[in-house]
Amino acid sequence: MAMPAPIRFVACDLDGTIIGASQRISDRTLRVFAELRSMGVVVVAATGRGPSALPDFGDTPAVDMAICSNGAVVVDQTTGVVVERNEIDGAVAASLVHDLRRKLVGSCFAWESASGYGYEDAFAFHGQMLLDSLKGAPRIDVDPRSPITKVFVAHHDLGYAALVERVRNEVSVDVEVTSAGLPFVVITAANVTKAHSLERVCAARGIGAAEVIAFGDSWNDLGMLRWAGIGVAVANANDDVKAAADARTGSVDDDGVALDLAKRFSLKGYGITNPAS
Predict the structure, then answer these.
(1) Are 223 and 204 in contact (CB under 8 A)?
(2) CB contact set of 241 (below 8 Å; sequence gap of 6+)
(3) How far apart are CA 18 and CA 30, in angstroms?
(4) Are residues 64 and 200 located together in one domain of the fold?
(5) How far apart are CA 5 and CA 16, in angstroms?
(6) How far is CA 81 from CA 74, 75, 78, 84, in A?
(7) How confident is the model over 85-94, as a mean pLDDT?
(8) pLDDT value of position 275
(9) Which of 209, 199, 261 is nearest to 35 (CA)?
(10) Over 60: is that where the pLDDT of 273 sits?
(11) pLDDT tens digits, residue range 135-144?
(12) Are residues 105 and 172 located together in one domain of the fold?
């Protein structure tokens, strides 16, 4: 029987996975990440957040890179340089919003690009947390001349599952439709997901899927958990993520990711009282 490949790469979602009610990454998690990096393990955050909404990773970043906006933007956290952008053509985004507004009466929109963000006033009712995270960036319109990172769609009456299905059925262009469990749907360019960007980042470093462990809690994590050699769901993950995962660990508020990694890498001094199973 072949021995499992050693873990050389950690990919970790942020909100709901290592960021909980405190809205910050715990010191224990940051210390575990930093120790893994000192051992030569690559640590990457994979998040739906845009680059401007990333959390504090410490003065010496505890992560090497951040896959942001569900894969649309990749940032080298050691330099702050954006190394990859995979955006929706501005004309496509404008057409998409126009079509959905016509076909899905009651829908409202927000959008994000490298130059700022924008939203319809009605969207604030559904996505105020998102808008708060983008404060400070310029407010922009959807411009057919400028690429868009993400389009957000909310609806006054439809719940998450129904909204996802309707948006996927109604869009007439090739895009990705997903959610992180918040009351709106996220649209990115075709083949732009956390999993696709993770695969490219790993390939550039000569790392295969079997050498990757990934952690997540929501639907936009499913692809990378399935692609990675080991996919781990935190205890508070939704049922779809738990079903897709190879393993489970403690909840976000119990530092489940840090405990799992400390156990797997035999790290000392992290208070492993509820190890991964």
Answers:
(1) no
(2) 216, 217, 218, 219, 221, 222, 225, 233
(3) 10
(4) yes
(5) 28
(6) 9, 6, 8, 9
(7) 93
(8) 40
(9) 261
(10) no
(11) 766 677 777 7
(12) yes
Q: Which of 189, 219, 242 lies at the terminal end of a domain, its last residue? A: 189
Average confidence score pLDDT of the chain: 90
The last residue of one of the domains, among 139, 170, 189, is 189
Give me the sheet containing 116-119, strands edge to edge: 116-119, 107-113, 150-155, 185-189, 175-178
Contact 91, 169 (CB under 8 A): no
Q: Please report, rounded to a whole number, the percentage of residues in the chain having pLDDT higher than 70.
A: 94
Amino acid at 61: P
Place 277 in a pLDDT band, splitting at 50, 70 and 90: very low
How many structural domains compose the chain? 2
CATH number at residue 208: 3.40.50.1000
Domain, as residue range, for 174: 90-189
> For the packed helices 90-103 and 160-170, what is the interaxial angle rounded to 10 degrees?
120
Q: What pLDDT score was predicted for residue 126?
A: 80
Pairing of strands 73-76, 65-68: antiparallel
Asked if pLDDT for residue 276 goes beyond 50, the answer is no
Residue type, 27: D
Same domain assignment for residues 77 and 136:
no
* Residue 170: HSE in the Cβ half-sphere, 13 Å Cα cutoff: 20
Token digits for 145?
Answer: 């001349």
109 and 149 inside one domain: yes
